Amino acid sequence: MHAIDEVTIDATHAAVYEHGWQSWSPTTTYGIGDRPHRPVNERNRFLCYRPESNPSADVYWGEGLLAIDPGDGSGVRIYAVANATETVPSIHAEVKGNRIVVSSDGPVATTLDQGPGSLENALARWADGFAASVGVGEMRRAPTIWCSWYQYFTDVTEADMIENIDAIERLDLPVDVIQLDDGYQTAHGDWLTLTDRFGSLQGIADRIRSFGRRAGIWVAPFLVFPESELARRHPQWLIGGPDKPVHGGHNWNRDLFALDTTHPEAMEWIAEVFSTMHGWGYDFFKVDFVYAAALPGPRHQDMSPIAAYRSGMQQLREAMGDSYFLGCGAPILPTVGLVDAMRVSPDTEPQYLPAGGDLSQPSVSAAMLTGRGRAFQQGRFWINDPDDLIARPAVEGRKEWAEHVRRYGGLRGSSDRIADLDDWGLAVTRELLAESPVETFVSSGGS
Ligand code: 9PG
Q1: What is the rounded distance in angstroms from the CA atom of residue 189 to the CA atom of residue 171?
Q2: What is the model's pLDDT at position 255?
């Protein structure tokens, strides 16, 4: 760590903005003295924060981006990586009386923004510049989707899919894409081998398409379970090889491995998965847990983890043709310019508060916090996905959640069993899915 700045603040009005590493990492603005959100255990730190970082709650800590409003009208200081294609430094801000000392472990560009509006408007202006330097193309408006996850989780069956495809048709709901989530595959890695709850992915796509809608599917291409055929037959495709799991035992009660995106055969396989699904009629891909490809560790080719990750994502894009590409569980800054839409928050869930009080964990409140913290990215980096509307009566705080989706949904999705919706739930689903906005939510010209 080396010091990069020292800022005098008015501690009663000052604020510090912390940007988290990946989709699920808490991202928000703190008043001086507020304790920043930190993982409550190692499992969460690995899966939902930056595994290489272990920040204390005594310093503010951003991954590649941190901003300070000194609270005295002198302008917002933005500390950010100029280019996230190789490395992303961690940036600290330590409060010492009426000063904040800023330091980082790599090169960071400092901007003094004296433009109109709030810290959020300053972040929007910074994002315009970052997007321009990366060369982000024109925004592709997101289709509206229905997703299986927040109702069925990994127990989803083909019969559940058919029930909801038919219900959406019968009720004439404005859903463009019907997207199957996690649960169809036998193991992470074996994406073309189905559990006995599924007969045919092509059959599901055919049924969806017969109603004039589009088929979508979830894949976690860079995460590999040890019991998969892939891990057993091709251990050399894994980062660090078969004896070095990238994560030991903390999730799903097993070790986790990550695909080495610098290995040409590994990428040939995963490109085949995407082109095969595309050939079956899928043209919307939710590509999840992709942070795994950016983990440190020995690779086939000598490349930085972030460059290896980006190359993997670019190869997926080629394999899926002109499909819509939604990133999830993705390191935010390194992914700008590579996807159409991005999950910008932790998962929603029928419960309001996150397990253990950890704001990276699935819950309405965690999704709202970080969804607001990244609102400025909509229409600049990509289309923001705040996560799906869930509107059935069992959802705690469903009205508040629906308001969040209404306000921050660049991508608008629904994830209830349609038959479980009451009149209110059905009405709000119909209303919010009428269109996915492409416009920005945060102005760069002030408030
Ligand atoms: C499928 C889900 C859904 C969801 C994604 C992602 O263990 N975890 O910390 C953990 C975090 C997120 C998560 C699952 C597990 O959700 O965001 O929409 O696709 O995967 O498994």
Answers
A1: 36
A2: 85
Mapping DSSP to helix (H, G, I), strand (E, B) and coil, where does residue 96 land? strand
Cα–Cα dist 105/3, whole Å: 9
Are residues 72 and 21 part of one domain?
Answer: yes
For ligand 1, atom 18, the nearest C-alpha belongs to: 347
Q: Model confidence at 251, in pLDDT bands (50, 70, 90)?
A: low
The protein residue with its alpha carbon nearest to ligand 1, atom 12, reads: 347
* Same domain as 394, residue 253: yes
- For the whole model, what pTM was predicted? 0.98
252 and 341 share one domain: yes
Residues 419-443: tens digit of each pLDDT: 999 999 999 999 999 999 999 999 9
Ligand 1 binding pocket includes 181 (Cβ within 6 Å)? yes
Buried b (16+ CB within 10 A) or exposed e, 322-340: ebbbbbbbbbbbbbbbbbb
Query: For position 198, what pLDDT does the model report?
Result: 98
Spatial contact of 277 and 209, defined as CB atoms under 8 Å apart = no
Model confidence pLDDT, tens digit, residues 281-308? 999 999 999 999 999 999 999 999 999 9
What was the pLDDT predicted at 323?
98
Q: For residue 269, what is the enclosing H or E element?
A: helix 264-280
Q: Are residues 242 and 307 in the same domain?
A: yes
Domain match, 94 and 157 both: no
Spatial CB neighbours of 234, under 8 Å, sequence gap ≥ 6: 265, 266, 269
Angstrom CA distances, 431 to 145, 195, 435, stand at 13, 35, 9
Looking at the structure of the chain, the number of domains it has is 2
* pLDDT for residue 241: 85
Q: What is the CATH number of the domain that holds 262?
A: 3.20.20.70
Domain span holding position 41? 2-114
In the set 69, 182, 255, 288, the catalytic residue is 288
Let me know whether 187 and 78 are in one domain. no
Mean pLDDT throughout 333-349? Answer: 98
Residue nearest to atom 14 of ligand 1 (CA): 347
Whether 288 lines ligand 1, by a CB cut-off of 6 Å, is: yes
Give the angle 347-350-353 at the CA atoms, nearest 5°.
75
Tell which atom from ligand 1 comes closest to the C-alpha of 328.
17
pLDDT at 250: 59
- Interval 213-226: pLDDT, tens: 999 999 999 999 99
Half-sphere exposure of 442 (CA within 13 A, CB side): 26
| Within a domain: 16 | yes
